[in-house]
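Task: encode each sequence below as structure tokens.

Item 1
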Amino acid sequence: MDIDTLLSYEWGVMAPEFIILGVATLLSLLDLFMGKDKDRKPLAWVGIAGIIAAIAFTVSFIGNDVTSILFDTFRLDSFSIAFKLVLLVGAGLVLLLAMNYEPNDGLEHRGEFYYLFLTALLGSMIMTSSSDLITLFVGLELLSISSYVLAGLRKRNKLSNESAMKYVINGSISTAIFLFGVSYVYGLAGTTNIREIFLVLSTPADSQYIYLMAIALFMMFVGLSFKIAAAPFHMWAPDVYQGAPTPVTAFLSVVSKTAGFVIILRLIITLFVQAPSGDGEAPYLLFHLQDYLAILAGVTMIIGNTIALRQRNIKRLMAYSSIAHAGYLLVAFVTFSYFMMDAIWFYLVAYLFMNLGFFAILQVITQKSGSEDISQFAGLYKRSPVTAVALGVFILSLAGIPGTAGFIGKLKIFIGAFITDPAHYVLASVMIATTVISYFYYFGILTQMFFRPATDDSKVKLPAGVLAVVIIAVLGTVGFGIFPGVAFEFIQQFGNFADFIR
């Protein structure tokens, strides 16, 4: 590739990625040359400034035509813009949490956290724009490897060490399974370009290739199910959520999960949307395997919500809650309704606000008490009424109570299960039943907050960064719950939200 070819590319479409890469590099150099006794918290402001700049460039791309560079390995389309905004906003809020994170055993390598966090964000952003299996895998591993290190950042904490080890082992296994499926796809298509693979798989040269395509789809979906903590591949999530530093747990529950669904939508839908099944009743492979994917979604909702009932550790409880929410999102994916993309995007936005708001208050309470038991929320309303009300808003949204963004997100997915032909009555029924089950453990936290006597009468004071996250999260949770049309009108600006297939 000569210099003229390099200069001919529209490198501006990668401006958000270049900004995050540059800031991560800058933070690593600043951390290297700062004295050991220097406070690393100011590095977070540099990271936040970089994220804001990346958001500004991403917003400026709205309404632009689809742009492809580097031999169609990187695409800027409506899909990538929409999900990059979710990732960047979530990352900015997590950095605000990390600034005020002070565990009892200390955090010696705070500088490492900031630039490792940005490299993980960079990997997820690359995934949203990947139009080639190689660049997509590079983004996936950049996210995964950075996450492994972040989970074990508290090196003197045994639970953190355990979480990192389990995360590495399970993540490596899932990657191997995923690559096994990818190898079949490459063998069938003879190319790594996603759109070229789509054309080849849509009209296979031999009907026997259908079985190989089914194996590839199955292995890839199993590997990605680990990434989003879908049952029965969820076993790593509770231990990792419990042992990882709280900002990392918040990152894994929101940003990492969003990236997981990005790769499922970008890869699975694109490659197999028109792959034939050889069955006249269900002509396409995805629809032929729809019942199996529905079982996976149902099992995920059931396991996540039922096991959460027995949890006393609040971070483990939120891990199983996250598994359940992955099941709700899988319902939208399985039904393949015409507004599937809108429903998944909106639900991830709602989940971002309500989950990060919850973890912001959880971080303060667990740091103050030194315990992660659910009883630490007892009497919170008497100690800090405003904090308790804010936390109540997040819990109600997680439970899907009307007036919150969580309710609108679930309602959109629920309606999508009925508008398809045939309608998914069983899956919708499981979604309703498991949502009702979730009320027991979500309302158990509310019971502790409003009806149990406090063991400690001291006030709960939210640091400035945490307070900013809580305010933004409350506004997002309540605002999108009362005025969901604002979000959906924003989505409509992207035009064809599924243009990543073209």
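Item 2
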Amino acid sequence: MKVINIVLVFVALVCSQLARADMAPTPISGDARLVEFDYNPESVYLVLTRPLAVTNIIMPKGEKIKLLKAGDTYSFMIEADKGLTEIFIKPKFEGVETTLTVVTTNKRFQYVIRSTGKNRKYYQQVSYAEEPNTLFEFGDSSDKLEKNAAPSAKLIDEESSQIKLKGVRVNPSELNTNYTITGDAKFKPVTVYDNGKFIWLKFSDKLTELPAIFAKDSQGLYLVNYVPDMENVVIVQQMADELILKIDKDQVSVRKGKRGLFGWSND
């Protein structure tokens, strides 16, 4: 029994260390004060600061800050730059800690901001690794999607009957367009389709603000990561049976399948 307990403790410690490793930043150019994180919407980032020093958080390329909320605004001075692309943090005291939530154009970031002390580790600059390009290229550069049309072989020139994703080719006839869109908000998509791995949403050309996109499951809503494309198209980098798009109180539902007499069908 003791051997089993020891093994269980060892496994727990290893899993804990692996989990922490996933969260750990990468020093830039070997300088531990300049670090880089990989973006993960399900991660809470620990940012080390110290009094009499300023920590600079640089948002990923293309992201602008829309909302910035901190728990302890007395012990920490936290402000964004005029371009809304960077955050500056300066703690007043040692040994204090607070939470910080940042919502940008397309992403959400959760932080724990911790103040250390003199001669102790802290981050002077925090940035994010560039995300891999997962955008699709529809045929040749001259090929364009027809406005408000459902994706099919008609949308792409017959001579360019394949779609490229990082060297992988997919026949457009294999795309699933079986989605039901409900809601009357201005950001209601005009076209939705998927390839079994990613979901594309095409909005009206008149759209000026992209919504936040959530996946809905039995546990509720959770924010998903998506990549803006040209011509008001975004790519959700996962599959979901239902997406909820929101701006303020307005929302639109994008559900896979069609409603029939006996419930929803994905056929």
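Check on item 2: Residues 102 and 108 are 6 Å apart (CA to CA). The first helix runs from residue 2 to 23.
End of task.
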